[in-house]
Write a structure and sequence with these properties.
alpha+beta; four-stranded mixed β-sheet; two-stranded antiparallel ribbon; about 45% helix; about 20% strand
């Protein structure tokens, strides 16, 4: 959801999802890095950074293409002076539609409105 928020969707989230291009069995590498940077391990895929923000590591995102394909499609956005790549709103919507959890479906109207607004601004 953070990617959608960075693209103008008027929403909030409790954590940041990071799609990692690693096999899930290598999760220990991320947990070790988290600890070296002063973070706290909450679960195998969730860590708390020093500022207490939560990060959820994703190793696969359902309903969209592979990491390498989506990386090429990604949108670059500036965050705290750094360029970061995020999934385009279209792909975030596609994934949430595919997964179909009630909490994902509930966000779809807002995401679709944000996408429509972006398209209007492009014209």
């Amino acid at each position: 959801m953070s990617g959608a928020i960075l693209q103008g969707a008027p929403m909030t989230t409790l954590d940041t999802d990071l799609w990692i291009d690693l096999p899930e069995r290598q999760y220990i590498r991320l947990l070790t890095l988290t600890q070296k940077l002063g973070g706290t391990i909450i679960r195998q895929t969730v860590v708390a950074l020093r500022n207490c923000s939560l990060v959820n590591f994703l190793y696969h995102v359902n309903g969209i293409a592979s990491f390498s394909t989506e990386w090429r499609r990604a949108v670059e956005i500036e965050l705290h002076g750094e360029k970061v790549k995020v999934l385009p709103l279209e792909q975030i919507i596609r994934s949430k539609e595919f997964v179909g959890r009630p909490k994902d479906l509930a966000t779809l109207p807002v995401l679709r409105d944000a996408l429509a607004g972006k398209k209007i601004l492009r014209r």
